[in-house]
Design goal:
The protein has 2 domains: 136 residues, 3-Layer(aba) Sandwich (Rossmann fold); 100 residues, UDP-galactose 4-epimerase, domain 1. It starts with a strand and ends with a helix. Helix content is 45%, strand content 16%. The protein is of the alpha/beta class. Strands 3-2-1-4-5-6-9 form a 7-stranded parallel β-sheet, sandwiched between helices. Strands 7-11 form a two-stranded parallel sheet. It has a two-stranded antiparallel sheet with strand order 8-10.
């Protein structure tokens, strides 16, 4: 069986959709915190199991010997390392065949503060002895959806990244990579460094938003302190504002710019261009 944790999340649903195009529905398990939210998946023949990262007793029932488990990283920064460890421990106890984990680009060397939980999770998976595949995902272009929409509304995208570059890809691209790995035989442990085919800067993002919306949009480069304050003024909690402001400093240093081409190779097509993703964000708004 192929078990997808977090299957009702944005990435998880895309993965399940992709799996159902390749394998019978009765081979797919949606492991979710709230089974009722997966009723539509159950109607398609997917087996739904409760699996709450913070309730280990549910995790023990979610896995079975021989399963391939996709562990989609949680979004509770500061708590998710413990959550991930609980999932891995339950998977090991069940005797699963492989754990596929959605990590972050160059998790072992990146300066990104958000990589700490991913690095710890990778270490725990390695120590568990379970065969593994690490999908080290770069930035999702959709991370910038709020910036895109605010750019259209206010005529400016704010940041502190200067001309630093981001090799993002769409959420659908990363989901397709997960599907590719989950539906083929993997020999030994594997680590994939995944990112978009080309990198772009925030000034280029502003230009794409302007072109797609037909409105003038510019990029305003702020100091780290001013950007941090702007994020707080926008309503973000201080720790979140700090994380996002620090990410822009990391972008200046090139932490999110690598384009190794492994994502394109896995999915068998070019990654989604920035222009296409911007158009999709505006269309869905």
């Amino acid at each position: 069986m192929i078990v997808v944790t977090g299957a009702t999340g944005q990435l998880g649903r895309l993965v399940v959709d992709g799996l159902l195009e390749r394998v019978p529905a009765d081979r797919v398990v949606a492991a979710v915190r709230t089974p009722g939210k997966a009723a539509d998946l159950a109607a398609r023949g997917v087996k739904v199991k409760e699996a709450d990262y913070e309730r280990p007793e549910t995790l023990k029932r979610a896995f079975a010997p021989g399963d391939t488990v996709l562990l989609i990283s949680g979004d509770a920064v500061g708590r998710r390392l413990g959550q991930h460890r609980a999932v891995v421990d339950a998977a090991r106890a069940a005797g699963v065949a492989r754990v596929v984990y959605t990590s972050v680009l160059h998790a072992d060397t990146t300066p990104l503060a958000l990589a700490v939980d991913h690095r710890g999770t990778e270490e725990h998976i390695r120590a568990s002895g379970i065969p593994f595949t690490f999908l080290r995902n770069g930035f999702y272009t959709e991370v910038y959806a709020v910036s895109v929409l605010q750019g259209v509304e206010h005529g400016a995208i704010l940041g502190a990244a200067g001309d630093g570059r981001v090799a993002s890809a769409s959420r659908a691209d990363y989901a397709a990579a997960a599907v590719a790995v989950l539906t083929r035989e993997e020999d030994g442990d594997r680590v994939y460094e995944l990112s978009g085919d080309t990198s772009w800067s925030l000034p280029e993002l502003a230009a794409e938003v302007s072109a797609a919306s037909g409105r003038p949009v510019v990029y305003r480069d702020l100091s780290h302190a001013d950007f941090h304050q702007a994020l707080i003024d926008a309503g973000l909690p201080e720790p979140v504002a700090t994380m996002y402001a620090d990410i822009d400093l990391d972008i200046v240093q090139g932490a999110l710019s690598p384009t190794p081409g492994e994502l394109r190779a896995l999915i068998g097509r070019p990654t989604t261009p920035l222009r296409e993703s911007v158009a999709a964000i505006l269309k869905e708004a």
